[in-house]
Design a protein that fits this description.
Elements: H1 20-67, E1 77-80, H2 85-90, E2 92-105, E3 108-120, E4 130-138, H3 139-147, E5 158-160, E6 163-172, E7 175-188, E8 191-201, E9 204-207, H4 208-215, E10 226-228, E11 238-246, E12 249-256, H5 264-267
Antiparallel strand pairs: 1-2, 2-3, 3-4, 4-12, 5-6, 6-7, 7-8, 8-9, 8-10, 11-12
Length: 273
């Protein structure tokens, strides 16, 4: 076959430059750009959230200090559900907690905490959905309150959960009989009421009925309810609902009228009859 012409085989075409890596680099660039934008948006969100939270905390604290005439350096703790930015944009806070210790209430001080839910940002945006407060009186502050109740001695008060223990004298003809009385607290028509539960005399413990059996109507002088009115120390929109004795403290649970945010009459102190 030496004299024959050999068929010419076609040369392979030159490989065209690959374009897929360029496309991949293009997609990667888009992804990086998207990630950067999302990252910046997240950073902006957190910055806005932080600023909103700071402004809200500072505003609430300043309002509490102003409304209650507290010292400028009074510690006021403020709390709310997070994130707070969507709530502010929506015009209402899901939850708002405010608390402070040693808040002046007339001639006594108390630790006060308030929890409100569905709280409008503006006073013209409706009432608070619900709110309640807890007011805690120390033993010495309760002594001051109880001293203003007729027939209760200033000395000898101790808190023995669930009761308030006081010392009293029962006058019987020409004799004075010292008594120890355990008073159980309750809330009646917005007042704190202390009701005799157990009486101790000469080392013996008697029920109130047992004391009446022994001393008749003379026992009525000490076996009576002792009402403590604190309505004149609180805004009229607050009503004592429940009272209990804890270790070294008397605790009052208080309902808060949701209209207090806009009604000056509810913001003013109440009165004692």
């Amino acid at each position: 076959m030496s004299g024959q012409t050999q068929p010419t085989l076609p040369l392979p075409e030159a490989a065209s430059p690959a374009s897929s890596p360029r496309r991949r680099r293009g997609w990667i660039g888009w992804l990086i750009a998207i990630v950067i934008v999302v990252g910046l948006a997240i950073v902006a969100w957190f910055v806005a959230e932080h600023i909103t939270r700071d402004i809200l905390t500072r505003t609430v604290r300043e309002q509490v200090i102003t409304q209650l005439a507290l010292p400028e350096d009074q510690q006021v703790d403020v709390g709310f559900d997070e994130p707070v930015l969507p709530q502010v944009i929506g015009g209402r806070l899901d939850r708002l907690d405010v608390s402070s210790d040693a808040v002046p209430l007339g001639d006594v001080v108390a630790d006060v905490s308030v929890r409100a839910r569905d709280v409008p940002i503006r006073v013209d945006a409706g009432d608070i959905g619900s709110a309640e407060a807890t007011i805690t009186f120390g033993e010495d502050q309760l002594q001051t309150l109880l001293a203003q109740v007729e027939g209760v001695p200033e000395a000898g008060l101790t808190l023995v959960p669930p009761d308030v223990r006081v010392e009293a004298d029962l006058s019987l003809f020409a004799l004075t009989v010292p008594l120890g009385i355990d008073l159980t607290p309750s809330a009646v028509d917005g007042d704190i009421v202390l009701t005799p539960a157990v009486v101790r005399i000469g080392g013996a413990e008697l029920t109130t009925e047992g004391l009446r059996d022994r001393f008749g109507s003379a026992a009525d002088a000490v076996l009576r309810d002792y009402p403590i009115c604190i309505r004149d120390r609180l805004p009229a929109g607050l009503t004592v609902r429940e009272v209990r004795v804890e270790r070294a403290a008397l605790v009052a649970e208080v309902d808060v009228d949701g209209a207090i945010i806009r009604d000056p009459a509810l913001q003013a102190n109440g009165t004692c009859a």
